[in-house]
Design goal:
Blueprint lengths: L46 E2 L5 E6 L12 E10 L4 E4 H4 L3 E4 L5 H7 L7 E6 L19 E11 L16 E2 L5 E6 L12 E10 L4 E4 H4 L3 E4 L5 H7 L7 E6 L18 E11 L19 E2 L5 E6 L12 E10 L4 E4 H4 L3 E4 L5 H7 L7 E6 L18 E10 L1
Antiparallel strand pairs: 1-2, 2-6, 3-4, 3-5, 3-7, 6-7, 8-9, 9-13, 10-11, 10-12, 10-14, 13-14, 15-16, 16-20, 17-18, 17-19, 17-21, 20-21
């Protein structure tokens, strides 16, 4: 948290962040698995691909299908350097590992696609398909690596719809350019508002049909306040009811733009979204009558901070600037506009007291646990007269309830 009370975010990414490499090497000290006799180099009868990957089937599989790079696989594996040193093993840990096949080292992405369920295969992966000759990742092994991999299960990734590139003629369209089509009729009767928190299952594809994110693939639904995601989601999910499944074609200007940074997908995106639950937002707190100016019956400090106790606290100790506190709060500008509220979100917030605006750092130190206090914070103790984008300007009024001093 920087020198500001957290304001409502304009757009939280729907994207999940997943490492592009295999699990950090993690050797169990309990069980070291002996390196195979051919660990130093691939034998003459090994299968080789154009990329330089070599492999040999150790145990035939029972399955009939190969995974794709978009699928999630479950495997047991052990890895050695060519001098026979074991650097990682799920077998040693006694627990198989599961991961999207397109999000590990290149040698794994290519190699495991050659396998079927039940198969065990040995791979000789050259450095350029692993971590390199001089890895930048701390602790990663260098050069050619040897892995024994057993493919236990394949979970197929959601397939791109045939109409992923363009909305069909019978799709609903809004003035913003958002297009959608109901895939499954819902059982609910109410639509969420943008302040509500929703739980959904979803999969997202680029216009070219590449899957870039999927809660379905992860096996875990996502929950978020509807006003904290991309605009196309905020608008689109409000059209839905619980139990409904809908396909959206979201133009770039309602998603991440044409050329976004940080790994987000660019251009038009297609999402399949199933709305599981709606959690209604608490009623927004009413604007105080004395929000326009500082009343006469308040405490004032030398800095210009004014405050008044609304509810007496039950605690005895005051927090220090270095303490972490848990609070509920609502903030208004002097024209009565609510610009942020943990009460509206239905979720308290915790933060180190010396990492927020000066008016909060000073003011909350006046409080005890259980106390509720109203603050009139002058601009110089808040975000200033000309604040950064998205922050409110001038004097601000906050109602703050101190729950806990950590």
């Amino acid at each position: 948290m920087n020198k500001a009370i957290i304001l409502s975010c304009a757009a939280l990414s729907v994207l999940g962040e997943v490492s592009a490499e295999l699990t950090q090497p993690n050797v169990s000290t309990k069980t070291m698995i002996e390196a195979p006799a051919d660990v130093a180099a691939a034998p003459a009868d090994a299968i080789k691909t154009e990329s330089g990957l070599a492999s040999k089937v150790i145990q035939k599989g029972t399955g009939t299908e190969n995974p794709t790079a978009a699928d999630t696989v479950k495997v047991h594996y052990t890895g050695w350097t060519t001098d026979g040193k074991m650097f990682d093993s799920s077998v040693s840990r006694g627990e198989p590992t599961t991961f999207p096949l397109g999000q590990v080292i290149k040698g794994w992405t290519e190699g495991v696609q050659l396998m079927v369920v039940g198969e065990k295969r040995r791979f000789w992966i050259p450095g350029e398909l692993a971590y390199g000759e001089k890895p930048t990742r701390p602790g990663a092994p260098s050069g050619t690596l040897v892995f024994d991999v057993e493919l236990l299960d394949i979970k197929q990734a959601p397939k791109a719809p045939v109409d992923v590139a363009q909305a069909p003629a019978d799709a609903e369209k809004t003035e913003s350019g958002l297009a959608s089509k109901v895939l499954q009729v819902g059982t609910g009767s109410e639509n969420p508002s943008e302040e509500d928190t929703v739980t959904v299952h979803y999969s997202g594809w680029t216009k070219g049909g590449d899957l870039f994110d999927s809660s379905v693939e992860r096996g875990e639904p996502a929950s978020f306040p509807l006003n904290r995601v991309i605009k196309g989601w905020t608008e689109g999910v409000q059209l839905m009811v619980e139990g409904e499944k809908r396909r959206f074609w979201i133009p770039a200007e309602l998603a991440y733009g044409e050329n976004p940074g940080g790994g987000a997908p660019g251009g038009q995106l297609c999402f399949d979204v199933e709305l599981l639950t709606i959690k209604k937002a608490p009623e927004a707190p009413k604007t105080p009558e004395d929000v326009t100016s500082v009343p006469s019956n308040v405490e004032k400090t030398e800095s210009g901070l004014a405050s008044r106790v609304l509810v007496a606290g039950s605690g005895k100790n005051h927090p220090k600037a270095t303490d972490e506190v848990e609070v509920h709060y609502s903030g208004w500008t002097t024209d009565g506009k609510l610009f942020d509220s943990s009460v509206s979100r239905g979720e308290t917030i915790s933060f180190p007291l010396n990492q927020v605006i000066p008016g909060w750092t000073e003011g909350v130190q006046l409080m005890v646990e259980g106390e509720k206090r109203r603050f009139w914070i002058p601009a110089e103790l808040a975000y200033g007269v000309n604040p950064p984008p998205g922050a409110p300007a001038g004097m601000l009024v906050f109602d703050v309830e101190l729950f806990k001093i950590k």
